[in-house]
Amino acid sequence: MDITTSVADGVPIYRQIVNQVRYMVASGLLEPGEEIPSIRTLALQLKVTPNTIVKAYGELESAGLIEKRRGAGTYVSDSPSRLASQERNRIIEQRVDALLAEAHQLDFNAEEVLSVFRRRQAIMVKTANVERIDDEKCG
Amino acid sequence: MKSVVEVNGLSRRFGQSLALDDVSFQAAEGLIYGLVGANGAGKTTLIKHLLGLLRAKSGSVRVFGLDPVHSPVEVLTRVGYLSEERDLPEWMRIDELMRYTQAYHPNWDMDYARELLDRFDLPGAKRVKELSKGMRAQVGLVAAVAHRPDLLILDEPSSGLDAVVRLDILDAIVRTVSDDGRTVIFSSHLLDEVERMSDHVTMIHEGRVVVDGTLEEIRHTHQRWSMRFPEPLERAPEIDGALFMEGSGRSWNVIHDGSVEEVRATAALHGGDVVQSRDATLQEIFVAHVGRGKKNAEAA
User: Which residue, of A66, A81, A96, is where some domain finishes?
Assistant: First the structure.
């Protein structure tokens, strides 16, 4: 499980782990029923106190995203699809909230934000097409 | 949780200077304790009391419920210790040193010692005096953990080591608590290491415990408030209980362990307001208590 942690940005390490596992489940990087590392393994990998992993896994377990199987390790829940879609919504909502807060600070109204959104999206689609054409030429 | 270390009201004087001033410290089973403080703050003096190398003049020290000065054998057979100086017998070969250390420890785990020596690539025939700084730390580490001590004490284990050996040491700490539910106390001046590895942080400054708690508690009780003022201020506004102030012009930040009302009231005196607050980082808390910022805040 590819998790990176940093003490620089002030977010507690257990919270960074929770957020990254949530994201991996929501995006399908972790699949239903997939085994995740034991507390010891992840603590050794990330060089953090094992109790940090205990806390992160505890929170993920109460959220229903992972489950412990007796004497057999920890797994992504078998039916996280409903949760995964909730997670996808939650992640995108957080981004939108941050964008709206920033827009408010800079005195943009919702309509103006939407028009910027569409303009940027159009540019992004165009660039993606150009890249694809370039790829085809190269290939 | 079972208590492993109980220090109460410990004071220690070396000549004129007070090395420890009414220090209390507890450690419970299965947790990692980080001791932080500037050089000479008193961390090593505290550790030496836990090992019975110094006798408590006032106050009490108990390890596994015993006085380490009166019951050195009972205490030290259950303790692993890596000193900052890594004072190993220079003339011994690594394998001799291992046998010598083993003789003091009935619980010595030969397989574990061999596994670690192999992993660190330490040849048994090599003499201690021929070892690099990193290798000495690794040998010291094997000697400290191979009897699977109930309490592992590391005094500045990372000091002067390269990143690879530092990771070996962090590995040994994680293994000690996760494999056997044992207790680790380590002192360090590397705050990111302390932040990652500690369940509980004790900050010592000039012989006194200035901060003590879980990392979460500590960060939550120390808030960093950002203030904005309508007019630029030439000097930092005076705020009762401020541990640290920084800023200029219309923006000033304060590290404070009191209530928001105190900060807000002071800001209001200058027509300003608190615009943002967040938990302070360990780095900020350390600088606030130990660094020059403390003196600046007091002088302001």
Answer: A81
